Structure prediction request, 570 residues.
Amino acid sequence: MSALPAASAAPVTPDRGTPEWSTPSGGVPDKTALAQWWRDSVCYEVYPRSFSDSDGDGTGDLRGVTACLEYLSALGVDAVWITPFYPSPLADAGYDIADHTAVAPELGTLADFDALVLKAHALGLKILVDVVPNHTSDAHPWFRQAVVSAPGSRARQRYMFRPGQGQDGEAPPNDWRSAFGGPAWTRVPEPDGRPGEWYLHLHAPEQPDLNWRDGEVVDDFERILRFWLDHGVDGFRVDVAHTLFKESDLPDAGPGQHQDISRNHLMPYYDLDDLHPLFRQWRALLDRHPARPGAVPPGERLLVAEAAVFDPDRLSRYVGPGEMQQSFNFAFLECPWDAEAMRRVIEGSVAAMAAVDAPVTWVLSSHDAVRPVTRYGGGSTGRRRARAAALLMLALPGAAYVFQGEELGLPQAELPDGRLRDPLWERSGHTDRGRDGCRVPIPWKGGRAPYGFSSAAPEDCWFPQPADWTSLTVEAQHGDSGSMLTLYRTALRIRREHPAPLSGPLTLLGPDDASWLGFDRGSELRCVVNFGPDPVPLDQDDEVLLSSAPVGGRKIPADTTVWVRRRPLR
Ligand code: GLC
Prediction:
């Protein structure tokens, strides 16, 4: 590669001065300028059942999250997204919601939620919560009422009930498949006991799809948004935002249908234009609903789309003017460890989002994805690449999300068959082990499960943790200059303390077919990722600000990212 330019000021050393993970960070994040904070924010995803258990029942809870907020503040994130903590029969780990405006009793109370928000705001952390509009739980009062009501009744119109095909309606209304396997339709017995209509569920049968062409559904979700805004939240993550609307006549999807819903680009329930007026309405609601003290002002509230839409131009429509502000970039998460593929994803995403003046929202992991360490090859290779990927993500222009445990470099846990809970396991006929392996409780400290996650016995924790996680605990990694935790803390600190270079424009370097990927952020910072096996030379004068692996002999080794300082950072 061409020579990297020289740099001059003293390097930023690894973050040795970070306070104990269990004690307050001693400060509110530096980023006080609020205007459009979400453009370059880093948000931490908390999966509350697996984060920290305050009452010893083996399941993480809201008080547990509150107790660990200092850890998140010290990590250096701007916001915390808490995945569903609402009452749920747990057919899909909480994404089957029975009451959208309450707290699951095993996770706490509304007062606990209010205390969490209060403390987060005092620490300078913003709080996002999930809104799950595509479906409810089958235990939701609306659905319970629908199944005991007659076909065509008001109660049924809130969902997608249809008569079946065939002489006796014995075949489903169309050929749609559930994302978790099997048909997307389930038949109900009518109140008189005869086999009756079918209802649509793009996910598990316990997650009936709502009818977004029904005014009462629209109104109820506005009520839900207002409810959580009144409890001080700063924004919402919108679950499966791309499937709320279905083509009105529910045509067959045809043979091209994939079980993975995110692959069904041309299907009659995928990414319909009807979605956008709804999301503009939500944005207008967020922009005008009065704010609670401590929360961000109305015009600064955030909507982030979970839209598994891989065409960057289609994805950019969710974040057009007056709509949401962020949409997760799943193409980045799913991109193989390959320079050319990464370059294509980055170039395409940056261009598409720039066209609508929205940030790219980078994401490497979530509660739905195989952990990066495992996905990139496992073992030491996977860990090395996950470190390099983290520095790549955090140098790119835009916002980023970090899923709990990503900053610890946790691998995907292998769970015994009997402990798997993901509906994918049963519905795939035990061929797909599902997503539970990334949802295992966080190891905080100590040498044995449950590693400080809970005071319950390991066998009473809602998921078992691996026996070899002692070196991955927060306690073990804290203060270790070579740990993943220190890498994340240091990168986030540089991002926060030196926002200027990291808000500079992106200039990609080098030829398209190189085995490395390089880019400049303005004139101060350069990021180079070596995906290939051969070392990539640094110039004699290049000053390495931060690297994901030791850089010896002025060469970037395989599977390594370096941040190079080109001028003193502002
Ligand atoms: C989203 C959630 C996932 C859930 C699905 C159905 O993709 O992230 O966990 O299974 O929606 O609600």
